[in-house]
Amino acid sequence: MQSEKSTPTGPLEGIRVLELSHILVGPTATMLLADMGMEVIKVEAIQRVDGLRGSRIPLGEEKAYERSPLFNTINRNKYGLTLNLKNQRGVGIFKDLVKISDIVVSNFAPRVMRDLGIEYLTLKEVNPAIIVICASGFGDAGPLRNFTAYAFTIEDMAGLTDLTGFRNGPAMIAGATFGDQVPGMYVALAAVMAVRQRCKTGKGQYIDLSMFETMSLMAAESILEYAVNGRILSRDGNGHPYMAPHGCYPTKDEGKWVTIAVASQEQWKSFCQAIEEPCLEENERFADPLSRWTNRDELDRIVEEWTVKHGHREVMEILQGVGVAAGGVLDGEELSKDIHLKERGFLQAVPRAYVGTHSYPGPFIRFSKTPTRIRMPAPCLGEHNIYVLQHLLGMSKEEIDELAKEAIIGNEIAQTLQVRV
Amino acid sequence: MNGCLSDMIVLDVTNWIAGPYCTKLLADYGAEVIKVEKAGVADGMRRWGPFPSDNPSSEGSLLFQYLNTNKKSITLNLKSVLGQKIFRELVAKVDVVVESFHPGVMDSWELGYEDLEKANPRLVMTSLSNFGQTGPYRDYKATHITLWALSGCGHLSGGKDGRPVQAGGWVCHYMGGILGALGTIAGYHYSQRTGLGQQIDISMMEAAFLAQAWSIATYSYRGQATYKTGGIWPFVIVRCKDGYFGLNVLSDTEWELFCAFIGRPELAEDPRFTSGLSRRDHGDAIVSLISPWFADRYKTEIFESAQEMRLPCGIVNTAADVVQSSQHKARGFFVEVDIPGVGPVVQPGGPFRLDDCEWRHNPAPLLGTHNTDIYGNVLGYSREELVRLRRMDVI
Fold first, then answer.
1. CA nearest A12: which of B152, B32, B189?
2. How far apart are CA B282 and CA B292, in angstroms?
3. How confident is the model at residue A23 (pLDDT cuts 50, 70, 90)?
4. Confidence band (pLDDT; 50, 70, 90) for A2?
5. A4, B199, B244, B379: which one has the fewest Cβ atoms less than 10 Å from its Cβ?
């Protein structure tokens, strides 16, 4: 599978990761690691596939579980293995893989790892240098230890939801799944740090990562404000602590919005000229940054009167043209056609079975001497069983057929998949 | 006990949030991070706050303190030719440079990667910028809300009138910082193994994009849009007696469980609510039906009993709830940092702990504290030379 080439797949080529995770936290982490050249083997079971395979799928179609845009985005650059870990033989094979791997990334609850007999202390006996990272909602200790956690509920618990919403309005979910991806990024960070640690000591370790803790870090400023001044910051919608105008404004097209942030007196002058309202510059109510901020509601209404006459890209071009930060709120369709992302090579066309060729984003970090790219599409279920079992573990074809007969491995789903919207 | 990155030396010329957070992550886990600021101007975050008792003193900015723990501080004027020369001397002695200037600025000072590579072929140079080092938006201006909008994070937010509302906290900046640290360590690992340095280009628009990475495929597979989540079922927040509660009832199984939980099993049979899509369409009706149950109860009691049934949910915690959290206390998440001139201050701890690896939380440095240490001991300048350089506004 790893062909001979002079340029590496990335700066972290030569490191092998076993992924035992579902949905987003673990899979995002191993995607980032795989993008940088690590060999990531994603371990699913035909009796329990990654739940993300059920996201936004056309249920009636053949192999619908291969058609999830979410699964196929997050799991690229990974090898796909199926292994039933509720079976002793399956666990045995997993341990054989641990012997030849460097890192295990799991977002199964630590208690699940223990129930399956693959908790860190057992794996350490098999491979003393193994690094095991378990990401769970609240970590493996404390009163909330076994509580459920999802992206939005963790954002709620971490204080982020409370910071999001219009002024004098209720708290609102932020929208993007920060509560999964941010912990996932920290899991990847823990992995590379543990690799560096191992370079010094030769030893592996177990890292118990809490989504609640990592997301609380995103609310650092509000935590500091409360801890030291006893003050709870109130929601400020699309406003800013000192910039005005600063907001998200409607445009001439329904459902299209544009953000504008005027950061200085100089930018204010340019802004007034660009929107062809030079008298605005003379208006005392907006003459200096403090006045503008104090009168920002009135200012926002004036800005809106202008933005509703234009398209969001038009506003962006006009204002960026005079050095003012303006950005349209772009959706999936617009992002897939965005000229900046295209020219950056950020949208890569990748063919895949069952869905054909589509563009996927990333890699998210660029290296000038060890350039990285999407090398492989997200694996089909058990797609690389032969590569892993035969080439990496040296099993015979007969042994592999036996495993398939006992449904320890396979290529067809053997469960009813929960469809997620 | 040293940190896992104790063999890494970093020259840090970043300001504000993303860059300093990247280098904070490195410093907290053991790297020697030398923060470079221009005397008299300094990192703007020193002026941001929050300030203890709202007293805007020069060293009291709590966010600056938090973002710059464990770093050393030197002053240097990168706009002066002599300052640029000294910078190159420093580059020869370090492993990593992290910068977040507008693309082209370092090049204009002859401190671009090609220039620095000559001083140190093993150098890893991490460049964090709003839109990356290349591309049509390269020279665009951006604040957090701009990045939030252009990265795709914005379009998922917003309620029924459709107006998106910015994600709270500075989450897009932090995402840039975390990827910065991740890329830096990866590049450093490669450089240690091969002797080859390189430049790492991180765009904050692309970093924040990760939080909704599938929006492109969701559109391109079947022309679907991603869902808005502001107060639309299933992503609703309901009021309870002492605050707010967040629900996350997605699947049919979870819906049945939820109906049983609030003592309304008959709602599971209601033809309006039998599928995820139909529940979304009738979300307002659902919220009206369930609100009285929540309004009558306390958030902690709801949370604990819901969790016993494994129901996906969370309390909408305020900053006070987070600081007072018994879970954070049990895991020792918060630490106390003794800030000179301010006193002991509570700060969040690290994202994870590593075995046999110190996680440090020393206060941020006073401006220029390490000038004599770095310029004197590392580069060999005499005290007289340093005084002369200061008078010339080079350091």
1. B189
2. 17
3. very high
4. very low
5. A4
> Do B181 and B22 contact (CB within 8 A), yes or no?
yes
CB A94 within 8 A of CB A101: no
Answer whether residue A210 shows pLDDT above 70. yes
| Half-sphere exposure in the Cβ direction for B257 (13 Å, CA) | 17
Q: Report how far residue B260's alpha carbon sits from residue B264's, in angstroms, rounded to the nearest whole number.
A: 6
| Residue B346: predicted pLDDT | 96
CB neighbourhood size of A351 (10 A) = 9
Around A208, how many Cα atoms within 13 Å sit in the side-chain half-sphere? Answer: 15
Of A194, A24, A326, A178, nearest to B207 (Cα)?
Answer: A178
In chain A, what residues touch B225 (CB-CB under 8 Å)?
A: 331-333
pLDDT at A203: 96
Q: What are the angstrom distances between the C-alpha of B314 and each of A143, A202, A211, B236?
A: 15, 40, 13, 11
* pLDDT score at A213: 98
Return the HEC string of chain A.
Answer: CCCCCCCCCCCCCCCEEEEECCCCHHHHHHHHHHHCCCEEEEEEECCECCHHHHECCCCCCCCHHHCCHHHHHHCCCEEEEECCCCCHHHHHHHHHHHHCCCEEEECCCHHHHHHHCCCHHHHHHHCCCCEEEEEECCCCCCCCCCCCCCHHHHHHHCCCHHHCCCCCCCCCCCCCCHHHHHHHHHHHHHHHHHHHHHHHHCCCEEEEEEHHHHHHHHHHHHHHHHHHHCCCCCCCCCCCCCCCCEEEEECCCCCCEEEEECCCHHHHHHHHHHCCCHHHHHCHHHCCHHHHHHCHHHHHHHHHHHHCCCCHHHHHHHHHHCCCEEEECCCHHHHHCCHHHHHCCCEEEEEECCCEEEEEECCCCEECCCCCCCCCCCCCCCCCHHHHHHHHCCCCHHHHHHHHHCCCCCCCCCCCCCCEC
Q: Which two tokens stand for residue B347?
A: 């700060």
Question: Is the pLDDT reported for residue B162 higher than 90?
Answer: no
Q: Which amino acid would we find at residue B314?
A: G
B297-323, pLDDT tens digit by residue? 999 999 999 999 999 999 999 999 999
Q: Does A6 score more than 70 pLDDT?
A: no
Split at pLDDT 50, 70, 90, the class of B105 is very high
What span, in angstroms and rounded, lies between the C-alpha atoms of B152 and B35?
Answer: 32
DSSP β-bridge partners for residue B98: B12, B126
Question: Is the peptide bond preceding residue A363 cis, with omega within 30 degrees of 0?
Answer: yes
Strand order in the sheet with A246-250: A246-250, A257-261, A325-328
Calculate ∠ Cα B210-A107-A175, nearest 5°: 35
What is the overall mean pLDDT for chain B?
Answer: 95
- What band does A1 get if pLDDT is binned at 50, 70 and 90? very low
Distances (CA, A) of B279 to A340, B270, B282: 38, 10, 5
Q: What is the token pair recorded at A9?
A: 């797949």
Contact B175 A185 (CB under 8 A): yes
Whether residue A245 is preceded by a cis peptide bond, meaning omega within 30 degrees of 0, is yes
Taking CB atoms and an 8 Å cut-off, how many pairs form between chains A and B? 490
Residue of A105, A161, A315, A352 to mutate when probing chain B, most B C-beta within 10 A: A161
Three-class secondary structure assignment of A47-103 = CECCHHHHECCCCCCCCHHHCCHHHHHHCCCEEEEECCCCCHHHHHHHHHHHHCCCE
Out of B183, B227, B352, name the one closest to residue A365 (CB): B183
Nearest-neighbour CA in chain A from B344: distance (Å): 9
- Which of B171, B172, B224, B226 is most worth mutating to test chain A (most A CB atoms within 10 A of its CB)? B171
Say which residues have a Cβ less than 8 Å from residue B332's Cβ, sequence separation at least 6.
Answer: B349
